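Weekly sync, protein design subgroup
Attendees: M.S., D.O., the rotation student, P.L. (late)

Item 1: inverse folding check
M.S. brought a backbone from last month's batch and wanted to see whether the design step gives back something sensible before we order anything. D.O. pointed out we never logged the input encoding, so this time it goes straight into the notes. Structure tokens as presented (211 positions):
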């Protein structure tokens, strides 16, 4: 309010430090889950889909390689030759893989005639029209992107490398991977499933699942 000089930063901090903002989104309170399934009384945080740019940023953060440099030229995340075929006008020059390409999504080049496919899949607004709010959808292409996209696979490997570097045995790695990716420790059943997955496939397979 007026006492803080109408500071927007003060308002943001006030909201983020509030009890409501810091609530968990899990259904651990069985009584509340039964009495208020729709969360009308705000006893838990409402789960919500991350926005397109933040999906990418979250993976970079989990992998430990996000570049937080501010300002400067835009970046051009990798786009396949197939996607670029027939684009005779406009610019899209893939930024080589590395710190320069790992900047936050806000710095990804926006081109109306050629939207970045990953952002497009996760409901980035159509840049040809004004959008008062973003659509939120759940479609098969989102799951397929998370399963097969080269960027997602590379970030899963980077998260696996980070975990294997900072934790020794498989159980410590599982705990750390969950804490980094999901912000919580794994449940007992999740530990068993994860250990089996690591034994049968690899640590990168587990981190891919978590992403």
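Designed sequence read out in the meeting:
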């Amino acid at each position: 309010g007026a006492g803080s000089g109408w500071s927007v930063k003060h308002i943001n901090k006030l909201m983020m430090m509030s009890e409501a903002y810091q609530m968990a989104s899990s259904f651990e309170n069985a009584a509340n889950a039964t009495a208020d399934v729709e969360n009308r009384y705000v006893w838990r945080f409402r789960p919500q889909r991350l926005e397109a740019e933040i999906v990418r940023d979250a993976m970079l953060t989990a992998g430990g390689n996000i570049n937080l440099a501010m300002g400067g030229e835009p970046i051009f995340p990798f786009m396949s030759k197939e996607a670029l075929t027939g684009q005779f006008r406009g610019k899209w020059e893939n930024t080589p893989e590395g710190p320069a390409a790992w900047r936050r999504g806000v710095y990804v080049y926006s081109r109306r005639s050629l939207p970045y496919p990953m952002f497009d899949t996760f409901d980035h607004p159509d840049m040809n029209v004004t959008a008062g709010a973003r659509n939120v959808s759940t479609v098969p292409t989102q799951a397929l992107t998370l399963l097969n996209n080269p960027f997602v696979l590379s970030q899963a490997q980077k998260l696996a490398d980070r975990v294997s570097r900072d934790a020794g045995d498989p159980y410590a790695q599982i705990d750390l991977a969950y804490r980094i990716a999901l912000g919580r420790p794994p449940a007992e059943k999740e530990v068993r499933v994860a250990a089996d997955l690591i034994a049968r496939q690899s640590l990168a397979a587990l981190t891919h699942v978590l992403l």
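Discussion: The chain has a mean pLDDT of 90. The radius of gyration is 20 Å.
Action: P.L. to compare against the previous round before Friday.
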